[in-house]
Each structure stands twice: as structure tokens, then as C-alpha cells.
Amino acid sequence: MNRRVLLPRLLTARLLGFAPIFDEPLELVFPSTGAFVILGGNGLGKTTIMQAIAYGLCGGPEDEAVEPAKAHRWDCRYFRGRLHDERGSPSTIEIGVAFGEHHVEIVRGIRASSVQRIQVDSESWVSGPDASIRYERFLTHVAGYRQPADFAFLVHRLLYLPESRRLLAWDADAQTRLVMLLSPDLVDEQEFRLRRARLKQLDSKKRHTHVDIGKLRKVVGRLEVVKQPGEEKLQPADRATSGAHAPTLKLEELLGRLAEVRRSREAADRRLLQTREELSRRASEVEELRRELESREAVLIQRALDESVGAETRLDLPIAALCEHGVCPACGTQARALQALALERQREHQCVLCGAEELAAVDDLDTATLRSQLSQKRRAELRLARRSRAEQGAREALRHRELVLDGSVAEIRANDSLSSSALVLRRLESEQEPSIGVARSTLAELIKREAELETQIAGERDHLEGEYARFRDSVAADIDRLRSLYGSYATRFLGVECELHELEGTQRLFRLPTLVPFFEGAERPAPEACSEAQRFFLDIALRMSLIEWASHPTVPSMFLCETPENALDLSYIDNVADMFESFANANHLAVVTANIQREGLAHRLLKKVPASDRAQRHLNLLRHGRLSDVHKRQIDVLQAEVEDMLR
Amino acid sequence: MTAHVSKRVLIRKRDVLYALQLASESIGRLNRIQLQKVLYLTDCTMVIFEATAPSRGHKTYYNGPFDSAIQAAVDSLVFCAYVAVDEVRRDEQGRVNCFYRLTPAGKTLASRLRNTDALVPRFEATQAVVERVSVAGWHRLIALAYADPTFVERRRIGFGQEIDVESASEPSTANLIDLLVRALPTGRTGGPPSRELMVEALFRYLELYANARGVLRNQPELLSRRWSGSE
Question: Over the stretch A265-296, which tens digit does the pLDDT of each residue have?
Fold first, then answer.
């Protein structure tokens, strides 16, 4: 499996200054695995706690790099609107979180989204502007994320399922981004995403150009009916197009440099590939020699041991006692049958107890020559590895230059297009007696531009398709494992076999496959093909399987899930509880909010743990939140229900 | 089909005998964790002695790098009375603690192995490690093992990770030693730096990393300045 990022696992959360929702500081200590249930009612603060945890971990999804949809963006202002953040008791969120073996404590306020204070492992606390830098450094250097925005995306789109139920299932963009950022050594997800955005931009320009061409054709058609004298003569209005000379020159220069850089980068790609292949061959040779040397050393050691047994035989050596006197080495009883077996094995050069055979003798034990060969090959391997790293660095630098130049070319073309052709078109449309010569030349220019854009789009699309195909091939085995995990979770929920199918995308420009459920003999290509409950819980199954897929078996993670039972009827409660139990059995933590309801999901989840553990696995917001008059009237019933769950 | 005697365990028997023989002249005896750490550090230095560490031996574990073949080897040596066990006891978590030392038969066997030319480089590597640990203090042994770059990199990912100290393509001890070979002055002969200098440089790095608390560990440029003495 390729290298993965470290996923977080929540340890503690502390909310301070959260009036008017909580009058007192709220402290939560989460178990290392299994379910933790936040029990409450409407308005008691369940959602606030979950949002505060997500915010404490990575800030709100406030920028486009984390949350493309404006409707789902929020930041510290959201909390400022809900809480009385006062100078005397500022609102703060303190989160304790594990990333593998690392323990990180993060403190955020709500006046700004930045980290106020941070402690990583046993380091001293870092405060002020350095705190955010320290956290970013931890996320990129230790947890393995390419950038902090990737971590924020992971939290907000995978680990935290908010009450708004923004589905991950059926969202091809989010699925692809997650799978890519969870495999950071295989693909540069950001570059892939930016290239897709550029492809859309190019396509949009092409469509605008196409519309302009249509309009200009009409103008030309009109002018051709009323032929003007001296039509081919350059009119003063044409100077608007002559002004494009300077950018055209710059464009040509840029295109020349881009072609040069691209050639260099392609050559660098080829060199890097060759070096890596050579390195892989060299590593196999080294490994072979290493094993050979190991075998010869083992034979020598065995020989020394045999000679030592022969020379040092004493009665107190258990094996000698067994072979010579038939004394069992474990209980000391005379055991003639065991002695006979031991002697037979000794004659056959086997271990007298387990019968394992001695290593075969090696004719040539010239280990010095072998060692010298190994040293030479290892030095060569290290040289190659150095070269590979240097070539990789040079390749990245060229790739970066290529992208920058590519961007500049696209920008100039867009501006040029607007400043010349579109301007002339507008002028032609507005003029009383426009020149047919200008109209024709502008039309020809636009047609040429459209063809150029078409070529650019085709090139960009080919590149993206190639990049995606390479990535898809390299994760093929991993995706099979993801399918199997999903099948297990989704089948538990549905009660009938459910698989994860990869559906070819329907996008016009670049078809990105979507992972969709398949059950009862039919693929479900869109959310509408499932009931509301199916959509919601199959989305949870996908998230759980992705979390388990992305986690190392010894480094469990977590899932924060808001009130899933609202979409659920009683007959499915046990299935959902089983799904959560399966997630817990993989050593992950599931933090679930739930309303206090008879025989609800919280009830089932708590009943799955021993009664003695239930107190540590829930938070009762009847004790911490501000009760409404409706709650107060029902408090005895609600409290009795909670006690029943804990009994 | 009959199984063969494990090569890994055989090789570790030699390593255990060397470590206990050399430690007897310094600290006297080694406990289970110390034995693992001495052998791990010896594996790290094998490249300097133009020899090789057992492949895919150590893994990241709760108490740092751990190779199950080492424990199997020492248990077998105890059974055959080459090694004696002292102060066997269990802690509150039920883990066995004890100390190991060579018996007279074990000392004879260790000497016999040491007199085999092909097995000398490992002895020299163990000797260099035991000497350096004795200078640093045996209480620093675990910190030194934890400071090894291969372990630091693999531990980041979690438990049960294979540690290949000789990997060329990943951050590893072999890469660090390669860097040192290229950075250290070669003297008048123009040949590579001496083994003593290499071991000294490696252990200075491990000491510095082990002593660098907190943020310094994640700032290689600062670590490098401090190492070169410019800060």
C-alpha cells in the first residue's frame, strides 16, 4: 500500500465561555475506540459541540480551497453570532487529538480562526502567530498532508458529517479529491484540481468565442449585402486590433519558453523513470547479495554452535542430559522414547526437539569477497538514490515553471481575446457604417482563436486523462479493498448485499468516475435512486469504509456523526447499530449525537458496551445545556429514559 | 516438509553473544530492552563496517525498535545454558523483566565466533557501539536508539512498521552515513574517513537529536547549525 496521511483521533475537547449555550465549561474525554454518544434535545447544544470540535481541529470551512460551495462555508463569525464572547471570559475551544503516536493540543478562540496556542507531544506550548505556523508544519511535515487545506477538507468532508447532511456519496469531485489526498505520494491532488479548473476556464472561453463568431458572422452577412466602396482599406477603427501587437509578441515569446520548458520537463521525466528503474534493479541485486551473505554467516554460526556442543557437553545442559541420559528437559522425568527420538534427530542433523533441519553446508564460504561486492553495490545504490532525488527536485522545478508559463499564456490569450476581437465586435455592432474588411479579419481571427482553444482543451484533457489513468492504476488494489470494506458496512445497514460500483462520469469535459451503491440488482447513479434513509446511511457506510481504508491498522481514526436516527425507522435501528459496532471493532472512535428517545440509536449503541462503561461513553446535555420550558416540563421522563439507557 | 533452523535466529544468537560479552566489560549485564537497543544500534552501524544488518528484522514497537528473532535467540541460548538469567519478575502490566549475562560456556562460544574471520565485522561494530554507549552513559541507550533517523521516520507512521536501516530510497541510517562519508574530511590519503570517525560522527548526531527537545527536532536547519558548532 502506498504512503498514507495520518488521520486524527479525538482524545479530549474543552469548551470555555460558551454562554448562553453552556453556562459552565464543558469537558469531554473520549474513549480510545467505540462509540461516544452526546445525548440531548432540541437547542441543548449537540450541534454546537460537534461544530466546535471540527472548528478546533482545523477552523471552519471558510475558504474555497476547502469548501467549493459558498452555501456550506462558515468560520469564527458563526460562533461569534451564537456565543457571548466577553473580554472577561473569552470563548475558546481546546482540542486534544492523536495523530498516530503524536499528541497535539490545540486552542482556538472565536475572534479569529487562527490557532491561539499549540503543544505537540512533550514540546513546550507555542502561542501567538507562531502557533498556526507550528500546526501547519506539524500537518505537512509529520502528518503527511501536502497542505493544511487538505487536512481541513478531510475533516469537513469525510470525518465530520454535519446535520446539513452534505453527502459524500454521489459527489465525484469530493470522492476523487479525498482518494487523491489520502495517497499524497501518488498524485499532486492540488495540481490535478487546478488543471481541471483550467480546463473548465478554457472551455468557457471557447464557448464565448463561439458565440462571438456567430454574432460576427451575422454582421459580415449583413455587410456583404450592402457592399461598401474601398471595403478592403484599413479603417481607423482597425487600430483597435493593431494594438494587439505587443501582447502577441509577448505571447510568442512565452509560447517559445513554454515549449522549451515542456521539452526539458519531458526529458526530465524520462531520465527520472530510467533512474528509478535502475535503482530498483540495483536494490534487488543488493538484497540478493545481502541474503546470500546472511545465509553464509548463518552456516558459520551453526558450525560454531555444533562444535561448541561437541566440546562443551556437560550434564547440566538440558539437551545433553536428554541425549545422554534420557532426562526430559521440561519435567526431568526419564523418557527413553524421547531420548531415542532426540538421538535419531541428532544423527539426521536436526533440532532434537522440534526436528528443524540444520542449514545445508555451503561449499564456498568466501564471505570477504561477497562483502566487498555488497559494499560496492550498496555505494552504487546510494549514488543512484541521490541522483533520483536530485532529478526529482529538478523535475518538480521544471513542472512548476511549466505551470506558471501555462497560466501566463492562458491569461494573455484571454485578455487579448477580450481586448481585440470582442472589442472590435462590439464596435462593429454599434457602428452605423462598419467596415466589412475589419469584420472579416476579426472573424478570421476569432475562428483561429477558437481552433487554438480547441487544441488547448484537447491537450489539457489528454493530460488529465493520462494523469488520472496512471493514478487509478496505482490505486487499483487499494480501491478493491475499499469496495470490500464498503460492502461490509453497507450490507450491515441495508440487510441485503450492497456493493460499491464505479460509474463512468457524465461530465462533458472530463469524465470523473463516481463511486455509487449497487443493491437489489441495480446501480444507484443518483441520490434520487435511493430513499432518504438509504442515502444518508449509505453515505455513512462510505465514510466509515474510507476512514478504515485510509487508516493504518495500528493507527485508528474517528468519525463525528450528527443525529443519524432522524431519517430512520425503528426496524433499521439494529442494522445501524451493527454498522457502528463494526466501525468500533476496527478500533475507531465514533462520536454520535442523538436525541433522547425510547429505543433509539443511542439506546442501542450504549447497550452494546458493558454497563460499567456506559457512564464514560456518553454526555448528558440535560445536565449541561439550558433547558427550555418544554424540556423542564418533561425533565423527569427524559431523565428516566437516560437512566434506562445506562442501566 | 521439514522446516529449517531459522537463519535469522542463528544470526541473532551470534549478535546476542557478542553484545553480552562486550557489555560484561562495561555495564556487566543487559536487560531485555537494553539487549534490543544495543543490537539495533549495532545494526545501524553495520554499513560503516562494510557489513550488513539482518534484513527486515526490527519493527516499530511500544518500547522502540524490536526484533522478535533477538528474543527467540536469547531464549534459546538460555535453554542451552550459554546465557544465564537473573532477577526474572513481572511488572504490573504482566511483562517479563530480567537480566542476561554469559555463562562460561557462552563466553567460550562467543570467543569461538569472534575468531571466525567472516564474523569479525559484527564484533567490531558491537564493540564500537558498546564503547560509545559507555561513554554517553547506559541510561542514554534508549534515547540514542530512538534518535536513529530510520526509526524516527517509521515510528511516525505507527506500530508494526518494518525498519530497514539500510534503505537507499527512504530516510534511513544508511543515507545519513552516506551523507557523513561525503561531508567528512578524507585526510591526506584521499580515502574515505576512518570507521572511528564515522562512528563518532553518527553518535554525535544521535546524541544531539536525542538531546534536542521539542521544536528543534522539526527544524533540521537549526539542528544542523548547532551540530556544526555555528550556534
Answer: 889 988 988 888 888 888 889 888 888 888 88
pLDDT band at residue B224 using 50, 70 and 90 as cut-offs = low
The ipTM (two decimal places) reads: 0.87
A14 SS3 class? strand
Burial of A256 (0-12, 13-18, 19+ CB in 10 A): exposed
Residue B108: closest CA among chain A residues belongs to which residue?
A: A308
Cell of A332: 526431568
- With beta carbons under 8 A apart, name residues in chain B contacting A101: 155-156, 158-159
Give A500 or A141, the one with higher predicted confidence: A500
Shortest CA distance from B109: residue in chain A: A308
CB A366 within 8 A of CB A359: no
Q: d(Cα A433, Cα B26) in Å, to the nearest integer?
A: 104
- Asked whether the beta carbons of A548 and A555 are under 8 A apart, the reply is no
Give residue A541's pLDDT band: very low, low, confident or very high (50, 70, 90): very high
Consecutive H or E run containing A515: strand A514-519
* Among A499-513, A526-540, A604-618, B210-224, the least confident range: B210-224
Percent of chain A scored above 90 by pLDDT?
24
**By the 8 A CB rule, do B26 and B134 touch?**
yes
Residue A281 and residue A380 in contact, taking contact as beta carbons nearer than 8 Å:
no
Q: What is the predicted pLDDT for the residue at B14?
A: 95
**CA–CA separation, A82 vs A91, rounded Å?**
11
How far apart, in whole angstroms, are the C-alpha atoms of residue A212 and residue A424? 11
Contact A385 B81 (CB under 8 A): no
Long-range contacts, B174-179 (Cβ 8 Å, 24+): B174/A378, B174/A382, B174/B47, B175/A382, B175/A385, B175/B149, B176/B149, B176/B202, B176/B205, B177/B47, B177/B48, B177/B202, B178/A382, B178/A386
- Please tell me the distance in Å from B199's CA to the nearest CA on chain A: 17
Cβ of B108 and A312 within 8 Å?
A: yes
- Lowest-confidence region among A305-314, A355-364, A617-626, B12-21: A305-314
- Indicate the residue of A283, A291, A304 with minimum beta-carbon distance to B168: A283
The string of pLDDT tens digits covering residues A344-402 is 988 888 888 888 887 776 665 578 888 888 888 988 999 999 999 899 889 888 888 88
Locate the chain B residue with the closest alpha carbon to A293.
B52
pLDDT attached to residue B61: 81
C-alpha cell of residue B41? 544500534
Residues in chain B closer than 8 A to A134 (CB atoms): 215
Q: A202: closest CA among A512, A508, A450?
A: A450
Q: How far is B70 from B37, CA to CA, in rounded Å?
A: 11
Enumerate the residues of chain A whose CB falls inside 8 A of the CB of residue B52.
290, 293-294, 371, 374
Letter for the amino acid at A576?
Answer: V
**Better-scored residue on pLDDT, B146 or B93:** B146
Residue A359 C-alpha cell reads as 542449514
Min Cα separation B224/chain A (Å): 17
**Are A304 and B54 a contacting pair at CB < 8 A?**
no
- Which of A6, A101, A294 shows the shortest C-beta gap to B7? A294
Number of Cβ pairs closer than 8 Å across A and B?
151
How far is the alpha carbon of B168 from chain A, nearest alpha carbon, in Å? 5
Contact A301 B11 (CB under 8 A): yes
pLDDT digits over A220-273, tens only? 887 777 655 554 444 444 444 444 445 555 777 888 888 898 899 889 988 988
What's the longest Cα–Cα distance across chain B?
63
Kind plus residue range of the DSSP H or E element containing A95: strand A92-99
Helices (H), chain B: 7-24, 32-45, 68-79, 104-114, 120-136, 141-146, 149-157, 173-183, 195-211, 220-228
Query: Could you tell me if B80 and A319 are in contact, meaning their C-beta atoms sit under 8 angstroms apart?
Result: yes
